[in-house]
Design brief:
CATH superfamily: Hotdog Thioesterase
Number of helices: 3
Low-confidence stretches: none
Number of strands: 6
Distance between the termini: 23 Å
Shape: elongated
Strand content: 25-35%
Radius of gyration: 16 Å
CATH architecture: Roll
Largest sheet: 6 strands, antiparallel
Structural class: alpha+beta
Order of helices and strands: EHHEEEEEH
Mean pLDDT: 95
CATH topology: Thiol Ester Dehydrase, Chain A
Length: 139
Amino acid sequence: MSHLLEPPPGQQVFSQVRDPVATDFDANGHVNNVVYLSWAQDIAIAHWTACQADEDLAQWAWICLRHEVDYRRPLLPGEAAHIRTWVATEADGPKFDRFVRIDGPDGAMCAQVATTWCLIDQARKRPRRVPADMVLRFL
């Protein structure tokens, strides 16, 4: 990715604020890159859980096929992370793209993540096409 990720106008955006804890910081004194990735996964799960019915949560699961992460600015002690996520407007068979942007309290982007997820049928443990109605719940 070479451009800053922003949700399309009118797109549903799910957000959280995280206050880093002491173990989130690395030897360089800023939030470790692995923590950013963990936050991206955590917010994706929280968004999925908030948007889907209990029966969907029992029937479906997601696995990550690919993460692409850009780092721009360190998040320093005393700074809260403002995390936003949104999804692509359509799926590609079982694949569905999700975007996460982690900003500092000044609004400057610290990290952004584009992830390709694959929908899995829990009972069969096999990929399944993302249903159109599932996509609509995120939009």
